[in-house]
Amino acid sequence: MEEEDIIILGDKVELVLEDNKIYKTKIEDLTDTGLYLVAVPSLGGVPAPLYLDDRISVGFYRESGRFTATMEVVAFEKQGEAPYVWLMQITTPSKQQRRGEFRLPTRLEVNICEYKDGMETSLPVFGEANEQEIMENVNTRDISVSGVAFKSKKEYNAGEKYLLKVYIEDQQARSQPFLVCAEVMRALKLPDSRVQHIGMRYCGMTNNRSEVLSRYVFSEQQKIIRQGRRFD
């Protein structure tokens, strides 16, 4: 395995169970034999329904994207009053491919702003970034954990980079926009149309940004499922 594929002590991880809910926890201990100790996570005060021999997907983040591995529940233990679970890794972590990512069809306000070289290394996750010139205001057609799509009458070209200020409502109800840099991957103009269909891929991603996007997209996806709506 490459270095970024290896789960390390202290990694924040996501456990995806059969109920399709994401439970967040952290690697508290590990062994050379592929065992990982995590605190049993909960949602809304309800502990994750974990049972011996369960096989679950465990996700973690690196700068290059999200990785997943299959693990099996092999033992439980208590430290004080806190419950912990030992997980055994049974597959090599693999990077989540773009095609496997869910695209959430939603209209979010986005400010397309001027990009400056290297700005992603010091960019906060949330903020106004008022010093950056706003090039255009658009609404998304869809958004995923890897990119965003929208329509525009402004001309974009593949390879161009921009700062995006995305106005999302996550579980913490932040009022400031989510900040992320993105590169134009697709700029398609339909025949006899002035409108371009733009697809951008995020660049300079961090664990915190990936977690914010993953939480938002998954939460909205579950709302659609509960309401019985179609994704198209």
Compact overview of the structure:
Helix content is 9%, strand content 45%.
List the helices and strands and how they pair.
Layout: E1 12-16, E2 22-30, E3 35-39, E4 42-43, E5 46-47, E6 55-62, E7 65-79, E8 82-89, E9 94-95, E10 104-105, E11 109-113, E12 134-143, E13 147-152, E14 161-166, E15 178-189, E16 196-203, H1 207-227
Antiparallel strand pairs: 1-2, 1-6, 2-3, 3-8, 4-5, 6-7, 7-8, 7-9, 10-12, 11-12, 11-14, 12-13, 13-16, 14-15, 15-16
Verbal overview:
The protein has 232 residues and is mainly β. It has one helix at 207-227, and strands spanning 12-16, 22-30, 35-39, 42-43, 46-47, 55-62, 65-79, 82-89, 94-95, 104-105, 109-113, 134-143, 147-152, 161-166, 178-189, 196-203. A hairpin with a 5-residue loop joins β1 and β2 (22-30).
In sequence order, what are the helices and strands, one letter per element? EEEEEEEEEEEEEEEEH
Distance between the termini: 37 Å
Largest sheet: 6 strands, antiparallel, barrel
Instruction: Please count the beta strands (DSSP E, at least 2 residues each).
Output: 16
| Structural class assignment | mainly beta
What fraction of residues sit in β-strands? over 45%
| CATH-derived topology of the largest domain | Thrombin, subunit H
CATH class category of the largest domain: Mainly Beta
Average predicted local confidence, pLDDT: 84
Radius of gyration: 20 Å
Strand order of the largest sheet: 1-2-3-8-7-6
Categorize the overall geometry.
elongated
Q: In DSSP terms, counting alpha (H) and pi (I) runs of 4 or more, how many helices?
A: 1
